[in-house]
Design goal:
- With 371 residues, the chain is mainly alpha-helical.
- Helices cover 72% and strands 2% of the residues.
- The chain folds into two domains: 40-116, no CATH class; 130-329, MetI-like fold (Orthogonal Bundle).
- It contains 15 helices and two strands.
- Helix 7 packs across helix 9 and helix 9 packs across helix 11 (275-293).
- The longest helix is centred in the middle third of the chain and has 39 residues, at 222-260.
- The chain is globular and about 85 Å long.
């Protein structure tokens, strides 16, 4: 027993040691690809200046150093178009403010050094730190991701168990057809359908069209605030949940069917154990291992990738929309800051998933497992 615990400790210690190395590799690969991508922030800002759109909302640029570069309205576009010398001077100034006057390798290690201390700098286009932007957008994405993931697990696991217990029946066939249809319909298409049907698009106006709260929400009573918040969540969470049900339901069903065919189940049946006791007393723990393994990837997907289009359609200002807009605008501090945090969170959740394996089934050994 002591040796087994020692092996587990060594395994998890190795996994923890690999987290920073893996994170470094993820950041290095993505940084390399970004350097190869055309149209960086300097080029985009130069185009805006030439087109006369670099005033008002875009006239204040925050560089990596935190210093401000201001394109004032008094500085007209004709002045920049007047001479190539001024244009080149403008480019060099922008490169300095954005931090592109240094070699890529130097910029990469400077970034990593800051990220180790969770210093992600400021957005290129907003006078806010990356951390402040993430904290500002996080409640929306957490709401969508957590509610959707919990709802998927609460529906899919009991449904998968029932489908395994009633394999080949009308119930199994009918639910399989419905789940396949739900999986085939893209979440954004379902979201549009729900808006048209239930949010005043054409037929009913039962749910709000956009946002997470109604106007004047801060003046509502506490219970009214909770109800209003949940009311706004219904359609976006439904759109995200339907597509995720099929995979987990079929995974649960197949895991239970595999366990039901094993010798220990046949022995339990021969001893007169009820089907309910066999399913939940013997099969459940073993069958749930593979379901638990998929939890981190599903949660990460729901939090940071699966909600992008949903956030756009329902006008929800969350992390998915923040990352999407950052990539479009080449706002590199936001792009790499969110990537770093999401990758770190994914690695930690996968480690937690392996730890939960040992809690669910103490028979698992790590001495022969590949890392």
């Amino acid at each position: 027993m002591a040796l087994h615990c020692s092996v587990k400790t060594i395994y998890f210690a190795k996994r923890i040691f690999l987290i920073p190395l893996t994170l470094f590799g993820i950041m290095a690969i993505n940084f390399m690809f970004v350097q190869l991508a055309p149209g960086g922030p300097v080029e985009q800002m130069m185009i805006k200046i030439e087109q006369g759109t670099a005033t008002s909302a875009m006239d204040r640029i925050v560089g990596n150093s935190g210093a401000d570069f201001v394109v004032t309205k008094a500085t007209t576009i004709s002045e920049y178009r007047g001479t190539q010398g001024l244009k080149e001077q403008m480019r060099k100034e922008l490169e300095q403010r954005f931090g592109f006057d240094k070699p890529p390798l130097q910029r990469f290690f400077y970034m990593i050094n800051n990220y180790i201390r969770f210093d992600f700098g400021k957005s290129f286009y907003q006078d806010k730190t990356v951390i402040a932007l993430i904290l500002e957008k996080m409640p929306v994405s957490i709401s969508l991701g957590v509610f959707s993931t919990l709802l998927i697990y609460l529906i899919a696991i009991p449904l998968g168990i029932k489908k395994a217990a009633k394999k080949g029946t009308v119930f199994d066939t009918a639910t399989s057809c419905l789940l396949t249809i739900g999986y085939a319909v893209p979440a954004f298409l379902l979201a549009i359908f729900l808006i048209v049907l239930l949010a005043g698009g054409r037929y009913f106006s039962w749910f709000p069209l956009k946002g997470l709260t109604s106007d004047g929400w801060e003046n509502f009573s506490f219970l009214h605030q909770i109800f209003d918040y949940l009311w706004h969540m219904v359609l976006p969470v439904t759109a995200m949940t339907v597509g995720g049900l099929a995979g987990l339901t079929f995974l649960t069903k197949n895991a239970f069917l595999e366990e039901l065919g094993k010798q220990y189940v046949l022995t339990a049946k021969a001893k007169g154990a009820s089907n309910k006791r066999i399913l939940y007393g013997h099969v459940f723990r073993n069958a749930m291992l593979i379901v638990i393994a998929g939890f981190p990837s599903m949660l990460i997907g729901m939090l940071f990738t699966g909600s992008v289009l949903i956030e756009v359609i329902f006008s929800l200002d969350g992390l998915g929309l923040l990352g999407f807009e950052a990539v479009q605008n080449r706002d590199y501090p936001v792009v790499f800051g969110t990537l770093y945090l999401f990758a770190l969170l994914g690695l930690i959740l996968n480690l937690i998933s392996d730890f939960v394996y040992t809690l669910v089934d103490p028979r698992i050994h790590f001495d022969k497992r590949m890392i």
